[in-house]
Amino acid sequence: MAEPIISVKNIYKNFGHIRALQDVTTDINPGEVVVACGPSGSGKSTFLRCINRLEEIDRGTIIVDGMDICDPHIKIHKIREEIGMVFQHFNLFPNKNVLENITLAQLVVRKRTFEESISIANKLLEKVGIFDKAAVYPSNLSGGQQQRVAIARALAMQPKIMLFDEPTSALDPEMIGEVLDVMKSLAREGMTMVVVTHEMGFAREVGDRVIFMDEGRIVEEGKPDDFFINPKTDRAKLFLSQIL
Amino acid sequence: MSNARTKRLTRITISAMTFSVLGILVALELAFGSVSHFLFAMVDGLKTVRFDVITTNIKYLLLGPPRRMGGIVLTLYLAGISLVLAFVVGLIFGLMRNSARAWIRYPAVAYIELIRGMPLIMVIFWFVFLLPKVFGYVIDDVYNVIIAFVCFSGAYMAEIVRAGILSIGKGQMEAARSTGLTRAQTMVYIILPQALKNMIPSFVNQFMSLTKDTSLAWFVGLFELTTVSSQVSNRVLVAPTEIFLFCAMVYFIICYSLSAASRWLETKLQAGAR
Ligand SMILES: Nc1ncnc2c1ncn2[C@@H]1O[C@H](COP(=O)(O)OP(=O)(O)O)[C@@H](O)[C@H]1O
Ligand SMILES: [Mg+2]
């Protein structure tokens, strides 16, 4: 058994009196694709955001790639360089064109040369299938294209882990496929991924494990086929009956 | 309230107001004959307009007294220097105001709230009369006044900067930081370029106020446009209307140029990043 690349132990997170995460524990191995699902407000986003410390946890430990991310001495941007994140609403930089979106962090954080950054960006644009849009501003792209640029932007830092927070739920139905295809190929290349999504097809095709969350807890875990066909808990059954 | 009803109410209000004004004018005319008197006086006045006072005194209005800066040139100098420095001060304090650290934020809050609660003329008096006495320094009043303008306008600019930064969604900061940028780098590369663009109209507003407020330097005896205008008026005696109309026109032209420049800048930036 390999050493887990993400190790989450007994974490708690409150927002005022709202308990967003309660006693969440899980290990994620290198190359594993974990799909998190659950009702709205169950803490899925908070869970992801704690992993790259966009939120600070109240209690517990999170070890990412051997680094304790709650250690106040650790430079948090060192951890974030290892973890790419893709958001529901893309969050591309509207004042920068596609190429600049992808090269900015390479230049500023990784201190790559201009030529190197651009060649990496171009390779990634080809990979996500929008090679011809390098000079375009995000507002002139479709939602699906924007999300693929966002994936390329995260990949440009060559992270070991990718976090996806409902990457397709802001997209028109006809664009979901193109984004999922990129994510699937990423999964097949062996990227460690934590994906919040309700796309069952994606989960069953490339997911290694499903985490079902409710009220800030992991209520059920299992292989995607088992979970979707044969959920054990009543809450998971109820949830699946609602999203189908 | 429905839209149609709002529109009807507006229409009724406007007609009611028009009728009452007309009614009052008619009543005044019937009672005192004062309306027609006023109109005749105005036409009479126009016949005697003498804009030659402007042309004969143009050098003084433009440059002020010899051997020191004055007139329109001083007004432009006061406005220009204060504007640039106030922008810098506003940027610094606006960023401090948004800081997560209390010991950085609170001094900025104190400065902004204190200054915004004061009339500008008070601030000018402090810097011209009070502070040089208290701290025992002597500098040209032009600089005292500039410091006052910068302090005053900087506080308003800081609030513009703060609001501009807040108007950029949290998602931008999160996206940038998730790629490893620090908070400061995100500010410089992502947030400020977007925010400053949105702030242009508010900045120009503030610049215009500042330009017109330079006329308050009259109170402390600087020879800027308003002061030299009143000097010329006192010397000539017969043409205050012409002289102060000219004075107003100069302020208007300066302000209008600022607003035209800002519109040009906005469309230019719009073309760039859209
Ligand atoms: N920044 C925040 N401030 C206050 N409450 C929050 C914040 N973020 C999330 N929450 C609350 O925490 C709970 C979990 O939210 P979230 O993790 O976004 O759920 P999910 O992504 O599963 O829909 C919700 O009740 C939500 O209202
Ligand atoms: Mg969410």
What descriptive keywords fit this protein?
heterodimer; A: 244 residues; alpha/beta; 6-stranded mixed β-sheet; 9 helices; 25% strand; globular; B: 274 residues; mainly alpha; MetI-like fold; 12 helices; binds adenosine-5'-diphosphate; binds magnesium ion
Describe the fold and architecture.
The complex is a heterodimer of chains A (244) and B (274). Chain A has helices at 44-51, 76-82, 98-108, 114-127, 143-155, 173-188, 200-206, 224-229, 234-243; strands at residues 6-15, 18-28, 33-37, 59-64, 67-68, 83-86, 161-165, 192-196, 209-214, 217-222. Chain A is of the alpha/beta class and 244 residues long. Chain A is built from nine helices and ten strands. A six-stranded mixed β-sheet of chain A has the order 6-7-8-3-9-10, sandwiched between helices. With 274 residues, chain B is mainly α. Chain B has a single domain, classed as MetI-like (MetI-like fold, Orthogonal Bundle). Helices cover 82% and strands 0% of the residues of chain B. The longest helix of chain B is centred in the last third of the chain and has 33 residues, at 240-272. Chain B is globular. The mean pLDDT of chain B is 89. Chains A and B meet through helix 2, strand 6, helix 3 and helix 5 of A and helix 9 and helix 10 of B. The complex binds adenosine-5'-diphosphate (ADP) and magnesium ion. Residues 44-45, 165-166 of chain A line the site of magnesium ion. Adenosine-5'-diphosphate binds at residues 15, 18, 20, 38, 40-46 of chain A.
